[in-house]
Give the backbone structure.
Amino acid sequence: MVVAIDGPAGAGKSSVAARCAAELGFVYLNSGAIYRAVTWKALQDGLQDGDAEQIAAAARSLDLQYRNGELMIDGQRRDDELHGAAVDQHVARHSAIEAVRAMVNRRLHQIAERQDVVVEGRDITTVVFPRADVKIYLDASVETRARRRWQQQEGDLSLQQISERIIARDEADRRKTSGSLQQAADAIYLDTSDLTIAEVCDRVIHTIQNTSEYQELQG
Ligand code: DC
């Protein structure tokens, strides 16, 4: 079974997807983390943003595995590096490379063939799994998303600076030639601005449990 979740940065996708997957016993797939892994590898190899072919080749050479819901890159967890400033700065451009998108989408399909997944990102409900069993679009106001990121950050950016970055990222995500952020016509829209993670998860899980696919899985 495939549960697909899309939405802008700070809408709560990762927390919601991870928690719902744990509650359901599904595998949690964070597609943004795979794009981040590609950027991490490209930076390790000293590649420039314009080196599209080499970045795609580096992406294909990565050994990516999910173990207990954790992304392992060449056998190791790299969570801190994936969320560092260097990766943040380059990942939007690297994730716009067609061959990189093709590699990430292929990996997501390979994993979902073998197990039940909750997968989140920007184009999961529209491009990667357009026939997902459940599609959710999570949203929240810019103010709420900026405040969440501000509270999570380890640096010293002001709320205003984070808010400006979120607006710029939204723009970049929507303008991408392929894999842009869009709400699928058949996705359930959930505004998380005034909801806790637990409240959002309850709604998502309720939706999943009501599908015939889930009921068949339960036998
Ligand atoms: O969700 P995130 O911030 O970890 O995503 C990292 C980058 O990857 C961000 O620039 C958006 C991009 N991305 C994408 O293009 N398509 C996806 N399905 C997921 C993320």
